[in-house]
Design goal:
There is one protein chain. The protein is α+β, with helices and mostly antiparallel strands and 128 residues long. It has two domains: 1-30; 34-127, Lipocalin. The protein is 20% helix and 50% strand. The chain has one helix and eight strands. The protein has an eight-stranded antiparallel sheet, with no helix packed on it. Strand 1 (34-44) and strand 2 (53-61) form a beta hairpin. It is globular. It starts with a helix and ends with a strand.
Length: 128
């Protein structure tokens, strides 16, 4: 009986240690959550389909990034940033084509380049 109690205490201590190590990591998962807004500025391309400057907003909640601009409203994408804040997303719409979004988050700022042929944009967004 004593051996069983002794083993259970070790198991409980080990589980407690594991929980103490894992818990901070779980809390750090969603450090980028929030609403970011700013401008998208034309970086390449021209013509009527390539507006020069527009408002854009991004909401990040967990593993979902939702963005809104003049063409799309509340469009959600899976969002898995690296620990350094860099990310890469691909948006596909049969009617509008493909857009590639590559960016980096530092503090309260998102800077991203969006390739949406025939246009290319740069986003500079600040957390609200």
């Amino acid at each position: 009986m004593w051996e069983k109690t002794f083993s259970l205490r070790y198991l409980a201590a080990a589980l407690g240690l594991c929980f103490a190590v894992v818990r901070p990591a779980l809390g750090a998962e969603h450090t980028f959550d929030g609403v970011y807004s700013g401008k998208r500025v034309l970086a390449k391309g021209s013509g009527p389909s390539c507006s020069i400057v527009q408002d854009v907003s991004v909401t990040i909640h967990g593993e979902i990034l939702t963005f809104t601009d003049s063409n799309l409203r509340n469009h959600a994408l899976a969002f898995y940033p690296l620990q350094d804040g860099s990310f890469s997303l691909i948006y596909f719409d049969a009617g509008r084509g493909t857009a590639k979004i590559r960016g980096h988050m530092i503090g309260d700022i998102i800077d991203a380049d969006v390739d949406n042929p025939p246009c290319g944009y740069h986003w500079h967004l600040k957390k609200q």
